[in-house]
Amino acid sequence: DNALWQRELSVAYNKLGNTLAAKGDFDGALGAFQASLAVIEPVAAANKENAGWQRDLAITQNRVGDMLSAKGEIDEALQSYRRALDISKDAVATDPESAGWQADLAYCHTKVAGALLTKGELPDALRSVRAGLEVREGLSRSEPANPAHRQAIAGSHVDAATVLARQGEQAEALAELHKAREIVEGLAAKS
User: Fold this and answer.
1) Each residue of 130-146: pLDDT tens digit?
2) Cα–chain-centroid distance for residue 82?
3) Which of 110, 122, 130, 186 has the highest CB neighbour number within 10 Å of its CB?
4) Would you say 128 and 109 are in contact if contact means Cβ atoms under 8 Å apart?
5) Longest dimension (CA), the chain
6) What are the helix (H) ranges across 26-98?
7) pTM (2 decimals)?
């Protein structure tokens, strides 16, 4: 099936992009990720019900955003991160029980928040951090034995603290850091 070969080609471009990014060649990596998008977008559009292809598309959008961010092209990175976020939101709406899609959604919120923070759009960055935190807390409630969810929640509290500190809200930032510390201490005590 041609769609399967197209997906394999997209994956190959992503692997090339990852390798180039690891070498610090952000222009080359961006080109590879954009080539991957050119291949996977029509396949994903024609196969909306295929969660794997939708996930590939979201991951590649995030990778494009990462390379644009590394090059200082924050507005363009934010657009790419928001596309990944929209794909993840649609996937969660289609399959709300999928922990994988929930985790991807939280991750996309974090990416959007980071770009907004870089742009200095602090209230929007904080909203995005908190949206990701809410998703992660839901994951933790549904899978309480999974320590990765608690660790991600701690990371979200640190992200919230970063934004709050930039807003000059030191007391609130400190409260977020205390929450993160308590979670990590709890994880350390269990290991």
Assistant:
1) 999 999 999 999 999 99
2) 10
3) 110
4) yes
5) 58
6) 26-46, 51-70, 74-94
7) 0.93
